[in-house]
Amino acid sequence: MHRFSLIGLLGGFFAAAVAAQNGPVVAEAEFLSVLDETHPAVRESAEAVGRAEAAVLEARTFSNPELGAVREDPGGPIGQTDILVSWQLPGVERGPQIEAREGEVEAARRRFNHEFLTHRLAMRAAYAGWAVAAARQNRLAAQAERVESLAEREAARAKRGEASGLEASRLQLAAATLRSRVALAGVAGEEARAEAAAWRPGLPVDARPVLPELPEAPSLAGADTLIRAARADVAAAELAEFATRPIFASPEVTLGWRRQDRTPGAADGPIFGVAWSVPLFDRRQAARRSSGAALEAARARLELAERESISSRAAASNNFTRLAAALAEAREELGGVEQMLDGAEAAFRQGEAGLTDLLETHRSVTEAELAVLDLHGAALAAHRELERLAAAQEGGPGS
Length: 399
Prior knowledge:
Blueprint: H1 3-19, E1 25-26, H2 28-32, H3 40-45, H4 47-60, E2 66-72, E3 79-88, H5 94-159, H6 165-199, E4 208-209, H7 225-243, E5 252-261, E6 266-275, H8 285-333, H9 337-349, H10 355-389
Parallel strand pairs: 1-4
Antiparallel strand pairs: 2-3, 3-5, 5-6
Helix pairs in contact: 1-6, 4-5, 5-6, 5-7, 5-10, 7-8, 8-10, 9-10
């Protein structure tokens, strides 16, 4: 393909990038505002809470009575009819079992809040990726436009015999290279926008993100949500283990009415009965061993969560501090890039610098600005990790 045809083709991608700047602006706060109890991700995470609440309801519900009727010797001299109602009385373990299930609800709600936070951080990551990709495309498009303008000016000078045609061609080639990068950045930006749109339905195709400023580091005081959930799990497991200690089951009480048909006459009277399981063989050994193992596992999970939290907090805090300082320093160093480019172009036009120096200056500025964007994205990711670890306040819909 001819070089000028290539420039024209890539110019279409550049025009699309410029047209996208006219779309509606969607800030990060607006993007995150759709995350509430109606969001599909939040509704899916609520299943565990619903199951735990159902377990509490089951533990609180008394067993159903059994109603029976027996008719003996219906054609004989003495017919007998028994109407019986049997009911298993609540056992002494009922109270601890209810408390254990209630503790599991608390743990499930804390985990639900952690899942809510996870969804929020995933949305922040998707938005940041979209914003960084858009900023990268915009930066490359602006640089391509500047080099293209310079190439057109030099091409006009070459036609008048005031400049070298080779230098004009090299500038056009540099502009085409930048437009190729604009096209690739546009593809990456569209992929990032699609990921963001999966979290926020109805996101306009031409919507524009705003690169978020780096927030302040959150406080890491207090236990995070997962540790609180693990502690609730331990408390529930202790109650569940305590509920398995009694070896005597509650008795089954039977009440009824008996009618005997005799010839002549009939006799009626109440029936009382008690059935009680004798713990001769099954002394709930298996239940106690199972609950004991569950308790030890819950304690181990709590210990692991505490260890991970301590080590992760130190690393996350150091990373964020380092990246935030590096970003601030890089931004300060890039404060005069426009003046640098203007000076390099003026020196080239006046013959004080060659084309190679001009192109190297443009390349260095572009790469430095893109590196700052990458650093900004890494700093935002480090802040999201701090937010995850600093979740001492229960902020989700389940709190």
